[in-house]
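Shipment paperwork, digital attachment
Item: protein structure file
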Amino acid sequence: MMSNKPLVVVTRKLPDVIETRMMELFNVRLNLDDHPMTQAEMIEAVKAADILVPTVTDHIDAAVLSQAGPQLRLIASFGTGVDHIDLATARQRGITVTNTPGVLTEDTADMTMALILAVSRRVSEGERLIRSGKWQGWGPMSMLGHRIYGKRLGIIGMGRIGQAVARRARGFGLSVHYHNRRRVAPAVEQALEATYWESLDQMLARMDIISVNCPHTPATYHLLSARRLKLLQKHVYLVNTARGEVVDENALTRMLDKKEIAGAGLDVFEHEPALNPKLLRLDNVVLLPHMGSATIEGRVDMGEKVIINIKTFVDGHKPPDRVLEALL
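Attachment content:
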């Protein structure tokens, strides 16, 4: 059991209600101006903290963790993905890592459907046309997109978010297909009316829309490689609300530029916040600033999970959202 008021260092600004509750429970150091911490600042944080609360954009790598003080026992990450934390080094140093799974599922699935609709129906292009002052009025051949009803959706990653996307897709009349490391339970498959593809290559070659919903792990880095992207048919739309590293961004950009696929909806990027400048010049791409989970409700729910994980750990118990490398 830790001391009742451990020093909790929070790396970014969190919702006021969460920060207030943390201040009541713990000795907290907040980031009031919400600036992204430099590596040097992160090292100072891990030297001092009993508990670190980072976000998915903080790089808690071996270089940072090697400088951590012996009192750092918990990294309670504010977010679902944990690819920003060197889990092996944390384990070696006896540091528990937790995340906030489940609470972002519906928000991210909503944004996935929004991007599918936006790119296939040219929503961003239409909005830009209006703002440009160049719209000449309705015409029978103006701003033609593609119907999604009746099309085949291929979901890569059938976890919580993938299944939530599948539920929404059925409501839009899409035929649901998926590829996953493991086939989901028959009851889930039946409820979602989803078709399983053991071969990702074969699924990619036969879909109309691809949705990336898997986590970023060493096994999924460039899962959609240049070779696999070439398997897509020319009319395909690709949507990514997962992690940018899952897709070879340069290869995707080249294909979009050459109209080798119809379009893409991207909420995440391989080197964010930097992105391929060529993407900015393309009309067949909808670009969003990693806002798939950005709802007030979602952020508060995430913060509450962080508090529960910290409080449980401080009380001497195993936190409910421990990250176990074997399950990634």
